[in-house]
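Hey, can you fold this one?
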Amino acid sequence: MLYSEEITGFPVQKILNLRCEFFGLAGHYALRLKPADANSTAPTTSAYIK
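Sure. Predicted structure:
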């Protein structure tokens, strides 16, 4: 895991800047958005970034 951030509530838009200190090497990365442990039935979303 390179980066983790907790987002509370349901913001209309959340922009994450993928800075080069996290992604310094070219390649394929996965982004995963998952619900809090308290709401484990909420859907999980994944995306692949090239």
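The CA atoms of residues 1 and 20 lie 15 Å apart. Let me know if you want another pass with a different chain boundary.
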